[in-house]
Design brief:
Blueprint lengths: L4 H19 L6 H12 L4 E4 L6 H11 L4 E5 L6 H5 E7 L5 E7 L6 E5 L6 H4 L3 H6 L1 E4 L2 E4 L5 E6 L12 H4 L4 E4 L5 H12 L12 H13 L4 H12 L10 H6 E3 L3 H17 L7 H12 L4 E2 L1 H6 L3 H11 L7
Helix pairs in contact: 2-12, 9-12, 10-12, 10-13, 12-13, 13-15
C-alpha cells in the first residue's frame, strides 16, 4: 500500500474539517454534503435533484470555495446553445492588421462547473457536456482541448414533473457518479437559515484544501483496499437490479424496466472507497457499500409503467434488494 495508516487518519481529519467548514454556511443537508464530497474525492460528477430554492447551487459554490477550486456556473435555459458551454472561435485583428480565428473558452473550462437546472435546456445542449464529462476533453471544429484537472460537473435539476423541463437522456444520466436528492429543510433548519441569511453577521469561509491536496486525496481513494467478499457483494447488488435475472426479486421483475449496468458497479465501489477515506479507513466495508447504494443506483434503474402507476420509487426497490442480499451470498 502506497499510503500509511497515519496518512489516511490525517486525510480523514482534513476532510472532516472540510465538512465542518461547509456546514458553517450550509444549514442541514448533511447527506447532500457528504455524497457531493464523495463524488469529488472519487473524481466523478454528481447530480443534485430538488425543488427550486433548497440551496443546491449555494452548496456547490460553497464546496468549490472551501476546496479552493476555480468555479464557473452555467444557467441552463431553453435557448442555451452548445457553444455557450464549450466556447467558440471568434475573429480578432492581429497587430499586423490581419484577421485570425482565436478560441474563446466557455465556462466548461473550470475545475468545478455548476450546471444549474440542467434539465431546462434542450437535449442538444445537454449533450454538449457528454464528451467533457466522459473523456475530460472538448472537441471544437476538430480541435481537441483538455479540461482543467481536477474537473467536476456538479449539476442540479428540478423534478421532471415541473413545467419546462426536459428529461436527461439515459446515456447522460449514466455519466453522473451519483444522484443526490435534496429534501425540504426541517423546522429547526428553516429557523437557522433565516438567522444566517437575514442577519447582520457575515459568514466567511476558509479554504481548507488546495488542488494538490485534493489530487492527493483522490490518489488515496484509489488505493483503498476492496476485499473479494466486498466486491462480490457489490456485484450481487447490481445483478439484483436486472428484471430479466431469474433470481431477481418478484418486485424487481414486476416493476423495473431495466437495471444498472457496469457503471453502476464502478460508482458503488468508487463512492464506497471515498466514504472509507473520509472515515479514516483504507479498506471498504459492507456499511460503505450499503450507504452509497441508493445514490449510485437510483438514476440507473428505470421503472416500467406498472411501477410508475403503483407509486413505487427506485429507492424503495433498492431498499428491498439491500435487505434481501446476504453478505457472501451467491446470486
Amino acid at each position: 500500500m502506497a499510503f500509511s495508516e497515519q496518512q489516511y487518519s490525517e486525510m480523514s481529519e482534513q476532510l472532516q474539517q472540510v465538512k465542518h467548514e461547509i456546514s458553517k454556511f450550509i444549514v442541514g443537508q448533511e447527506e447532500a454534503i457528504e455524497y457531493t464530497l464523495y463524488s469529488v474525492l472519487a473524481d466523478g460528477h454528481a447530480l443534485l435533484e430538488g425543488l427550486p430554492g433548497l440551496g443546491k447551487t449555494m452548496l456547490i459554490r460553497t464546496i468549490s470555495e472551501v476546496l479552493d477550486l476555480s468555479f464557473s456556473r452555467i444557467q441552463f435555459t431553453p435557448d442555451l446553445m452548445p457553444t455557450d458551454i464549450t466556447g467558440t472561435n471568434i475573429i480578432e485583428r492581429a497587430e499586423n492588421g490581419k484577421q485570425q480565428f482565436v478560441f474563446q473558452p466557455g465556462p466548461i473550462f473550470s475545475q468545478m462547473v455548476l450546471a444549474d437546472e440542467i434539465n431546462r435546456a434542450t437535449p442538444k445542449t445537454q449533450s454538449a457536456l457528454l464528451e467533457a464529462m466522459g473523456e475530460k476533453t472538448v472537441t471544437i471544429l476538430g480541435d481537441t482541448k483538455n479540461m482543467a484537472r481536477p474537473f467536476f460537473v456538479l449539476a442540479t435539476q428540478n423534478p421532471i414533473e415541473m413545467e419546462g423541463t426536459y428529461p436527461l437522456p439515459e446515456a447522460q444520466m449514466d455519466r453522473f457518479l451519483c444522484k443526490i436528492l435534496v429534501p425540504y429543510p426541517s423546522k429547526y433548519e428553516l429557523m437557522e437559515i433565516m438567522k444566517r441569511t437575514t442577519g447582520a453577521v457575515e459568514i466567511t469561509l476558509e479554504k481548507v484544501m488546495n488542488t494538490d491536496q485534493l489530487v492527493l486525496a483522490q490518489k488515496m481513494v484509489r488505493e483503498v483496499l476492496v476485499a473479494e467478499e466486498m466486491m462480490e457483494y457489490a456485484v450481487n447488488l447490481v445483478v439484483a437490479t436486472h428484471p430479466d435475472n431469474e433470481d431477481a426479486l418478484p418486485e424487481v421483475k414486476q416493476y423495473v424496466m431495466y437495471g444498472s449496468g457496469p457503471r453502476g458497479l464502478q460508482s458503488i465501489i468508487k463512492l464506497a472507497k471515498a466514504r472509507a477515506v473520509t472515515n479514516g479507513r483504507f479498506h471498504v466495508s459492507i456499511a460503505d457499500i450499503k450507504s452509497v447504494a441508493k445514490p449510485a443506483l437510483r438514476h440507473r434503474m428505470m421503472l416500467n409503467y406498472e411501477g410508475e402507476a403503483s407509486g413505487k420509487t427506485v429507492d424503495d426497490l433498492i431498499e428491498l434488494i439491500l435487505s434481501s442480499i446476504q453478505q457472501g451470498a451467491k446470486l
